[in-house]
Structure formats: structure tokens, C-alpha cells
Amino acid sequence: MRCLLILICSLLAMPAGAQRPARIAIIIDDLGNNLHLGRQAVALPGALTYSILPQLPYSAEIARRAHAQGKEVMLHLPMQTGDGRAMGPGGLHLAMDRDEFAREVRADLAAVPYVSGVNNHMGSLLTAHPGAMRWLMEDLACFDRLYFVDSRTDVRTVARRYAREAGLANAQRDVFLDNLQDAASIRSQFKHLLATARRRGFAIGIGHPYPETLAVLAAQLPTLAGEGVELVPVSRLVEKKRSERLWHASSSPLPTVAKNSRQ
Hints:
Structural class: alpha/beta
Largest sheet: 9 strands, parallel
Order of helices and strands: HEHEHEHEHEHEEHEHEHH
Oligomer: single chain
């Protein structure tokens, strides 16, 4: 109720005709193996979010460096794929029993300091498995104020359904910036991210520490304010979406509003 009152007051305090800036969050995934590229990624301007693989040579160092610069840190949690690709250390797979699964989740969280949230690394098989997602979200809910972002590596994912059941704040990836490691393609995907945010009010993009991605972001991020777009940590968008659900639920019974609030 207190959060709802704060939201109502903030809306009433906005000048007539005022428009909130579109908000984006950008997650840099797959950090931990390469210290040089990790340092370059952390040095990028603005409130980027850094998702770090567990139990790799530079995982803890990159997390500490990001945190020292006021950046948000996530755990990039390896999960089993449908095509048998190697996950790397700390991976979760369907052959685990309940105790093994929980121990691995705890070990991975402990391997990356200053973690605020979690997203999946790969996981086309595991994120589509209801039992595994129920276990994962139950385990994450044991830690204070963690959130979950579904990277959506497979359209069959049920991760957010079980995050909601466990009471975890959650969101999902809207745009992959660099499926093609080509500067022109990355710039095009960056524009798509901005267009999504302008249309809907917010959007989440995921990129990787490729030299091409880092170069495009270094050039584009300083232009965001002039374009009326705000770069925020992922947690700000997760919280915003949670507030929107509370606002819609309290202000309108329309089915379309309820449907939108579940996005």
C-alpha cells in the first residue's frame, strides 16, 4: 500500500503534459574469462549491468571492479541446452537431484560477489522445464531481494511463470544486440532497442564483450540523454514493472490491462 501511495503521489506531482523519458537497461553477458575485455566493458559510460559467469578465473575480480564503479552485478547462471553444448563451470542440468541443484545454485551465487540478480546463460532445455524452474526460483527466493531476468534463449521458456510463483521480481530480455558480431548489425539492434523503449516506455537489451559491441556502445551511450532515453540498471526496470502491476491491479479491472500487466 505504501508503494502504491508513493506511485500515485509521483504521478500527481508530474507537470501537465510532462512525459517520462523512455528507459533502457543493457546487460553485458558472458564476463569472467577475459580480463582485458571485462575491464573494457566495465569502463563503458553509464549505468550498464554486468552479468558474470561463475567460477571462472576473473569472475570475482570483474564483479568487484564493476561494483566499485557503482555498476550493477548479476550472476549469469549456466543452464543446460537442448543441443548438448558445454555450459562451463557451475552449470545446472536435468540429471541433478534436488540437493545437487540447490548446492550448485548456492555455489554459483557465492562465486560472484555483489550479485543483485540472475539471468540464464544458454538454457534452452532447462528454462523450458517446469520442475527445474520451480527449483531454481525457490532457491533464489531464499536470498534477499534477488531478481530474475529471462534471457529468452528459447520461446518455450517457463522461467518467468515460476519466478512469479516464487514471488521473485522478474523481467525478460527484449533485444539481443549482437547475435551478429558486425558493427552495422549491432547499431541496427541498438536502434531497435530504443524504438521498443519509446513505444512501451522501457526495454531490456543484452550484449556481450565482443570488441565490436563495446565499440558501438562506447559511441552510442553518450548520445542517449540527447535522444530523451535514460539508461538505468536492470533492477530499476524490474521494480518499475512490479509497480505497474500493482497500479493496474488497483485501478482497472479491464482484461486488456490485466493482460498487459503480466508481460
